[in-house]
Amino acid sequence: MQIKDALGRYGEAVAARCLTDSGHRLIETNWRCDRGEIDIIAADGRTLVICEVKTRTSLAFGEPAEAVDGTKARRLRLLATRWLAEHPGGWDSVRFDVVSVLRRADGPARVRHLRAAF
Fold first, then answer.
1. Shortest CA distance to 31 belongs to which of 13, 50, 48?
2. Helices (DSSP H) in the chain: which residue ranges?
3. How far apart are CA 56 and CA 100, in angstroms?
4. Which end of the chain is less enclosed by CB atoms within 10 A, N or C?
């Protein structure tokens, strides 16, 4: 496993813990299809949450969440549509969140959960 992949897995584990600690129910992680991947799919009550996780080790290139641009948001919307087609359910709404994880060498990770990020 490459360092980048290990960092991503670390961030996704931290994000999953953050979401469950705040009352979300995890439905699926790392869901893949031929068009891409959704990091975390969760439920917040009757709201389906599509969650993108971004992890970095420094702020040299900005906050991790800043890496989620319009192109990434459009892709996640497309992937959410695909997931919903394969998993019909009675969701009241769909929300797109971003969990930003900054892994620090000198202490615990800094985690920011951005609800309805786009």
1. 50
2. 3-21, 70-86
3. 8
4. N
Identify the pLDDT of residue 87: 94
Residue 106: partners with Cβ closer than 8 Å, 6 or more residues away? none
Instruction: Report the pLDDT averaged over residues 27-52.
Output: 97
Identify the three-state secondary structure at position 20.
helix
Phi and psi for 11 in degrees, rounded to 5? -60, -40
Residue 105 CB neighbour total at 10 angstroms: 6
Q: Are 47 and 38 in contact (CB under 8 A)?
A: no
Q: Let me know if domain 3-114 sits in CATH 3.40.190.10.
A: no
The residue assigned the tokens 């931290």 is 14
pLDDT band at 107 (very low <50, low <70, confident <90, very high): confident
